[in-house]
Design a protein that fits this description.
single chain; alpha/beta; seven-stranded parallel sheet; two-stranded parallel ribbon; 9 strands; 50% helix; binds nicotinamide-adenine-dinucleotide
């Protein structure tokens, strides 16, 4: 992971889960990290190598100012991890417009705000790497997490198209598409008409340990992979959706059936 050494990186959603682990790993690999999150207060303790700052990724101007400030102080920006996000478990019929607006604002517009702030600087440098946290849910079609999956598909589409455009400017783009990882996202998730603990019990795969999974994702970033899909079940499910959508739909219908058994 020596290529992260001496680099300057912004990580959004850096106060918890995947973002926190990415930030800590990058510091261990020798990078200087600016972790940005709604949960950080202005007075949050920072060190030379790990700065913590308040940021709402839905605020495009604040994201732009953060990038400008980092470049002014550090001279460049090597990585931006657009990672902040949250989940909603819900059938579409139970969603309201405000929930749609919020999840699109954070999970999709939040990523785009990071790209629009960092990409011009990276073009100027003729170097840099944009890493967007999508999800396995951004590669397959699933009922019950439709809103979440919709935003993650958009993040994958955005990332893959941008990767082609950015290549000419020496800028790399990667989308992270992990399966289920043990973080706070499931406790923090909104679930409509199903108790949160019942929602958690419906998750069809064992939860991945956070730090080893983040290490593997960062190894994929270091290799400049377009998509980092993991673990093995993620690769199999993704392949199944491409090879046999009909079979994949049968599995998805089973998940929907299980959800409806516990829906109020
Ligand atoms: N945990 C999983 O199983 C999993 C799987 C695939 C993808 N993901 C994605 O990984 C990313 C990180 O999720 P996590 O599992 O670490 O969850 P988490 O809840 O532990 O961390 C998410 C962080 O994002 C921050 N955040 C939320 N809205 C924000 C905003 N508007 N501005 C700034 N920060 C904001 C939260 O405060 C929190 O610290 C998300 O995009 C999520 O969709 C998670």
């Amino acid at each position: 992971m020596e290529q992260f050494s001496g680099k300057i990186a912004i990580v959004t959603g850096g106060a918890s889960g995947i973002g926190k682990s990415i930030a800590e790993h990058l510091v261990r690999y020798g990078a200087t990290v600016i972790a940005a999150d709604l949960q950080f207060k202005d007075t949050e303790s920072s060190t030379d190598k790990l700065e913590k700052c308040y940021l709402d990724v839905t605020d495009a101007e604040a994201v732009r100012q953060l990038v400008e400030n980092v470049v002014a102080r550090h001279g460049r920006l090597d990585y931006i991890f657009n990672n902040a996000g949250f989940a909603i478990g819900s059938e579409v019929r139970d969603m309201n417009v405000e929930q749609w607006q919020r999840i699109i604002a954070v999970n999709l517009q939040g990523v785009i705000n990071g790209v629009m702030a960092a990409y011009p600087q990276m073009i100027k440098q003729q170097s840099g790497h944009i890493v967007n946290t999508a999800s396995l849910a951004g590669l397959i079609y699933q009922p019950v997490i439709n809103a979440y999956s919709t935003t993650k598909h958009a993040v994958v589409a955005h990332s893959m198209g941008l990767r082609l455009e950015a290549q000419q400017f020496g800028v790399k783009v990667t989308a992270l598409c992990p399966g289920y990882i043990k973080t706070n996202i499931y406790n923090a998730a909104v679930s409509n008409n199903v108790a949160n603990d019942a929602f958690l019990k419906l998750i069809p795969f064992p939860m991945l340990e956070l730090d080893p999974t983040v290490e593997k994702m960062l190894a994929g970033v270091a290799k400049n992979k377009a998509l980092v899909v993991l673990p093995a079940y993620g690769k199999i499910v993704y392949a199944l959706h491409r090879i046999s959508p009909a079979l994949a739909n049968l599995l998805s219908k089973k998940s929907l059936g299980d959800w409806r058994k516990v829906r109020n």
